[in-house]
Amino acid sequence: MAEQNGTSRREFLKRSALFGCGALAASQLDVARALIARAEAGELTPAELYQLNRLENTLYTVCLNCNTGCGIKVKVVDGVAVKIDGNPYNPWTLHPHLPMTADLAAAAKLDGGICPKGQAGHQGAYDPYRIRKVLKRAGKRGENKWTSVPFHQAVDEIVSGGKLFAHVRGEENRVVTGLKEVCALRDPKVFAEMGDDVAKIRKKKMTVDEFKAKHAANLHLLIDPDHPDFGPKNNQFVYFWGRKKGGRSEFAKRFVDAFGTANAHGHTTVCQGSLYFACKALSEQYGGDGFKDGQKFYWQADTENAEYILFVGSNLFDANYGPPNRSPRMTQRLVDGALKITVVDPRFSKLASRAPGSWVPVKPGTDAAFAMGMTRWIFENKRFDAKYLANANKAAAVADKESTWSNGPWLVKLGKDGEPGGFLRASEIGLRPAELRTDKDGKETSYEFLVVLRDGKPVAFDPNDEKEAVEGALFIDTELPSERGPVKVKSSLQIMREVAAEKTIAQYAEICGIEPNIIEKVAREFTSHGKKVAVDVHRGPAQHTNGFYNISSLMNLNLLVGNFDWTGGMIAASTWNVDGTKTDAQPFSLKKLTPKYPKAFGLSVIRHDAKYDESTIFKGYPAKRNWWPLSSDVYEEILPSIQDAYPYPVKVVYSYMAAATYSLPAGHTNIQALQDLERVPLYFANDITVGPTSLYADYVFPDLHYLERWEMQGSHPNMPVKVQPVRNPVIASPNEVVKVFGEEQPISYEALWLALADRLGLAGFGKDGLAPGQDLTRPDDFYVRLTANVATDGKQPVADASDEELRVFLASRRHLPKNVFDAARWERISGPAWRKVVTVLTRGGRFDTQESSYKGDQVANKYGKLINLYQEKTAKAKDAFTGKHYFGLARYVPIADTLDRDTKALEAGYDLHLITNRDVRMTKSRTITQPYLTEHMPENAILINARDAKRLGLRNGQRVKVVSATNPEGVWDLGNGNKKPMIGKVAVIEGIRPGVITFSLGHGMWGAGATDIVLDGMLYKAAEKRQGGVHANAAMWIDPHLKNTCLIDKVGGSVSFYDTRVKLLLVNT
Amino acid sequence: MQKDILFTMHEDLERALKKPPEKRRWAMLLDVRKCIGCHACTIACVSENKLPPKLYYRPVYDYERGKYPNVSRTFLPRPCMQCDKPPCVAACPVKGKDGATWKETTGIGAGTVPVNYKKCIGCGKCVPACPYGARTLDPGTYHSDGTPELQKYETMPSYEYLATWPRAGKNLPVGNARKCHFCVHRLANGMLPQCITSCLGRIGYFGDESDPESLIAKVKKASRIQILKARAGTAPRVYYVANEKLEVIYG
Question: I want to staple A236 with a disulfide (CB 3.0 to 4.6 A). Which of A152, A441, A651, A1030 is the partner?
Fold first, then answer.
């Protein structure tokens, strides 16, 4: 086929001209001349012709089209990203992956596998609707009329405030408070003293009057002097974000800390907050008086080694941080029978479809009933790991070659009605007095010992004792004598057994809507493979009003078999450290490179880490809105709380990569909040398009696309390999280039923080911002240093890049402008770590080897700590609506509103249970811009079982409107009289539980090119390809008590995604 | 630790490329028991071969069967079968080795059914002739149609058939019949076909089936093989492994 070779001399020259970086060596020049001659003659070899496997055209970074964050290999020709494949150095896309030592040339030819979203990633960068300059609202909020304004003008306006929108009718005289005025409290000493005294007010050790007298000179700096616990005016700046990973998190934290606001909130609860916060409760560690240091994280199965996995609400062939990384670890093993699975899901997912007979279609929201039924069966049939559960402390665990242990045998004190409270302290029964200990911060604390019963006698112990092994009896229900009379106690396991026995297996099965023998069958299978089993959960069970208890009960099953840290059991994520605080070999400790900012104080606007009854606005129960002692980043609380001015009014709101209006259930409530000029006086957003939420902003700042920027992606719990994928710029940005701190750079998330810090005069930014001689004036100042930290973490750093690797590194970045990539600058920043930085960046991150990820029968990267079966901290926290303590142990709880009322009134007249799902081709709000995806999936559908369709007289392809009790009109009220009906097409299937309907997320979009936009007086019509399908979140129930927020899990923070009942109305077209 | 099959097939490919073309037999085997229906192959192929909107060389069909709760679902990827008896070639009016399409016998693409874009007259006769629907005429559309601006990545060349095909105006292959070619341009560079290397379920096997040491030969030998539309007598080079009888659901 040589005669078909179509490369012309001109084309070849055009592409070749840039190959060399700088001057070509003479020998290379000869080669180049020869190539040109042969190109003219049409004699190029395939290797010379094909551009997509050239070392110099291959860059490694990390995808962010969803948060799986797969390693990608971006193929760049003439500076244009033309193709994206998987990074073979990254364990997400090749299993096992190439070691870091593998040759770059070999890797360039070996493509790893990534999903269709990843394949389409460059279309997100090359999106005609991307914004490149700062946009300022030219009409009302949400009208989508904009004027482009100079970057520094926008920054000045946001900082200074004033009559910023006098050009908009109705806002002629509206004066906006700028950030300068909000950043009121600046004196670190006053900051610290007021913060300490607010803590005293909470603990009733100081009255508000005493506080006012003491701080009379500074009361004007507070939001409300009568409520000092609201904190300083600084808290009236609220920053929230959607998807933000490592690196950018540290960057933002620097600004937030310097500014001194308590209001920086993530989006966790819209994804699976109750999974994170239940696992935080499971991971709280006993510190001598109470529990602390729980991790906001979770565990997943070691997919590649498990023999049996019970997946609950997991959909990992479509989503769930799974398709590229978990599929290759499963599919062959499923075919071979080496891995068996059960899939509990109302919908016949692709996962269920790969394992015939695995599907258990439970009713949505009954996950805990399933788990508690299993728990009961496991207790009754003694199928738990008694040896594991007897271990009360670390020494006992280690003696059994276990790295984790539970509090199963620990004794819990009972209240007067027999309700479980806190763990019994040894001093309470005169067994062993508390002792004085010095904690790691040098603070002296009183350490209380805990108690188990062994051979009928109480034994005091320290759970972290590594020397004296303490085991306890598993099932205890007794009274122990004390000076104050007998103390009623039960062991954690005893309580768990009793709770599980509250219902029969048949009753549990009835709640789930399944046959009782299924629970028994699954429980038997789960306890038939030793430690090589796992209960792997994801979003499904978490996103209900009972999410926290669903997750706790499912995770507790893992504790019953003691599978944590075992090969084939439950594992946790492990990453190379970013901030330089892990080892002395890391050159850039952020701790040392950050000024000592005062600690923000006062309530956050979402009231997290705070107790209602300790606040100055305590007015009995129920509280107006929820308080969150156990959870944070409660996304659905941010804008509605601001709208309610509860606990206080705010002045300035900033959102980054956030689409709360689209992503949240009943997201239209957030649109209402954003249109409230009084309660949200100033709102600016950072986004790459005018998206479904930034459309309601006053200013939109363009961000960089993920192919143009930095981030530290981190890992997910199903990944046994220690990793740190490093996102780094592989293409130039189209954004306007501006000067910040004297440095040219495209407008970015970082540029905005920097410019704001500059205008506000915040410490820690600009010249000498990190340290004398170490500036913070551009993104790379920060991220090159973090990359050096990643490269030097661990016992051994990565190897230095060879000369050839350095050449490839430079040559493959020849198309990047100096304001993005400046090798000399990066080398200067890195210092001696420079060649190691190059090694990491030429591989798209740092990845340990597959071999070193396991050690014998266990994973190498262990969790290695106590895991709580009974949750003391949960039991001690109070419900802000009832004033009662939360229950401290997993159990089945029915779906309810915030006041614990059932949902029957909302259900009446609505016959279908609405759930949602993800399709691998879409991520909620960010993939609609990519035509490879929208052409393949022009619209989603409302999936309905054939029985329901028959009953309702619905046929495939008919269009229906989704309506519910809290949205009887079935519309998205987008504001300004613009209503978007929730109409989609019906797809009649068998693979869904009758009575349940679902739609996939990502379609039914507004903004992001799906809506007409007027910019500088020009109308840009929407793209039809972005308008397909339906998004039915607005049908999801609004909580009857909160009134402007969806139903919530008041313990774990999750939004309710899967509890609403709807009906479908046929639309005549 | 076993290697990723992508890695093993990559090694197989390097070995095969050292053989004389007439001694090797490119073939593809798809174990649909492992297919998770992710469509990565479909979209990766679009991106690699610069396919216009809605033109797919390798669609994945989705079949649901049974009645609740006894449901099954089959995902069936359908590349060009590179038939040894290709009906599309018979239907093409531009005949011969120097024609628009033929069964290749020499060179890197030996065994495939290529299209010579410079010879194809775009008559479309081959399209209905293919029993698998593996051929489509390129309508000359762009992914950014209907938006304010054409994007540069769309105009960059594809490398099909070891040539460069920048996309602009009526440039070839606009108007031509287009089809899967086992990514001959990648094979020539020691790279697996795009659909194989993008496969998340690792269902795809590709290589020289005449090499008994190759993974595809071993898997083929160990499995019960099916072909699509056996009665059409096309002698496909694409084999399937499935629990279900594919002729029942596909024909």
Answer: A651
